[in-house]
Amino acid sequence: MDLRTSALLRDLIGNQRVAHLATLRGGAPMASMTLYRAQPDFSALWLHVSRLAWHTQDMAQDAHVALSIAEPDDGRADPFTLRRVTLRGKALNLPNESPEHAGLKASWLERFPEQAVNFELADFSFWRIVPRDARFVAGFGQIHNLSAAELSRIAAP
Amino acid sequence: MDLRTSALLRDLIGNQRVAHLATLRGGAPMASMTLYRAQPDFSALWLHVSRLAWHTQDMAQDAHVALSIAEPDDGRADPFTLRRVTLRGKALNLPNESPEHAGLKASWLERFPEQAVNFELADFSFWRIVPRDARFVAGFGQIHNLSAAELSRIAAP
Question: Cα separation of B18 and A31, whole Å?
Fold first, then answer.
């Protein structure tokens, strides 16, 4: 993957705020919108979700997940040219008592200041999505498959 | 669901162009962006995809799918307020020789005029997603579950 394509993928994962999370629910695929923040080295994508949410129940049952992140539809003539990436991996809950929690909370609130209220609720916690691979569609027919190691290499500019 | 909420869901499904499709791939969930167009009575959502695409291969293996459709992120302070809906259902391929194909093609090209080239390619065809249910998140804590019958009732204004 050339430097320009790497930069496009880094911008997409690093700067979007919304992902669509695929989980297994009763043996069938489920998809739902969620907010995320990527670890700067792309070793993890973080979700902050309620255990009352369906996708959280799903992740607790089966850790396999996929995240689909796309440029928002800006009304362009051909939305098929929107750049998008799928990250497949496993989800792990991070207990709120973990030492990493305070730093993650600060980072989360920097991006999502309106979400402060959720940190007052006992049912919210962070989930770490550890990517196994990524599939980047940079445009029509421009598909790039990356391993987790390749993903981490493009993370740092 | 009150009239205003019904209208919001009708607008969301009817007017967005991009969905994130969850499929089963090797027993694990997969998610990828795709374009869609809803049948006016919401009895189906149509995809026009290549059989070379992973999600098409997945649907051919296991018909269970979910579509997640959301308002595009407009940079608002709290993206958690973006309206989104998940439709779960089954996917059925429509052979290009079917009598419905011409009408669907016209409707597809009306919305996606730049996609005409894909109708020249033998590997593209329509897939009908028949929804079994819908889960509409109209805002924080405003979750509405609808059966397929309830979904069809809100389709017609």
Answer: 14
B35 in contact with chain A, both atoms CB, cutoff 8 A: yes
A33 closest CB neighbour out of B64, B70, B78: B70
CA dist., res. A31 & res. A19, Å (int): 10
Cβ atoms within 10 Å of A151's Cβ, excluding its own: 22
- Taking an 8 Å cut-off on Cβ atoms, the answer to whether B32 and A86 are in contact is yes
Using an 8 Å CB-CB cutoff, list chain A residues near B35: 79-80
The single residue listed with the structure tokens 């629910």 is A25
Look up the pTM and report it: 0.97
The residue count for chain A: 157
ipTM (interface predicted TM): 0.97
HSE (side-chain half, CA atoms, 13 Å) at B32? 20
Run means of pLDDT, 10 residues per run, chain A, 157 residues: 94 98 97 97 97 97 98 96 98 97 98 95 96 94 94 88
Contact A71, B13 (CB under 8 A): no
Evaluate whether B157 touches B4 at the Cβ level (below 8 Å): no
Nearest-angstrom CA–CA distance, A89 and A24: 13
Q: How far apart are CA B13 and CA B15, in angstroms?
A: 6
Non-local (6+) Cβ contacts of A111 within 8 A are: A17, A37
SS (HEC) of chain B: CCHHHHHHHHHHHHHCCEEEEEEEECCEEEEEEEECEECCCCCCEEEEEECCCHHHHHHHHCCEEEEEEECCCCCCCCHHHCCEEEEEEEEEEECCCCCCHHHHHHHHHHHCHHHHHHHHCCCEEEEEEEEEEEEEEEECCEEEEEEHHHHHHHHCC
